[in-house]
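Appendix B. One record, verbatim.
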Amino acid sequence: MHHNTIALDIVLFPPEEIAKEAKSYNEELLQQNPAGLCLDATHLPHMTLMQLYANSEKLPDIVDSIRTISHQFQALPLRINGIKGIALENERAFFLTLDPQPELFRLHRDLMNKLQTYEVATDAKAFLLDADEEARPSTLAYTKNFREQVSFDHFDPHITIGTGEQIDFRNPMEFLASQLAICHLGNFNTCRKILWETQLGR
């Protein structure tokens, strides 16, 4: 285990109107569970393409690899089609789900294949946490098991909107996603800090 291990999320950020919609759902869930995930300037709505533990010294090489892949894609037309809830520890987590989009899945596969060489062992200190926080077991496990349990044929693109009891879906939304980024992960496997970003096709 490296003392300089960092937990990374390779993501697409939605445009502002979609981020605002995700935060609106999140505010509704926070009324049910005030201690749950709060989407804000340091917990950013996003669509995960890959998560991994990596040596922070390798970050420049990871950036170079992702930049090369990003040149092969253009902005992706995506559509939110519903809400899904799953049991998570002692609560229920909710996600905005997306239509299957072939280019989104190809981008996911290309990243998984290209970055496998940078994966290292789990490290609870790899996350960006507040002073009074500890990494949640579900947070550690999701990143650790990303390759085996939620990638390739199991890849299920979504935008996490929080934890609570129940929430109703409002309406489908179509959008273009082009902002690709590397983020430092925090609890709830959310993006705490943008480490690098680019636009698809540039």
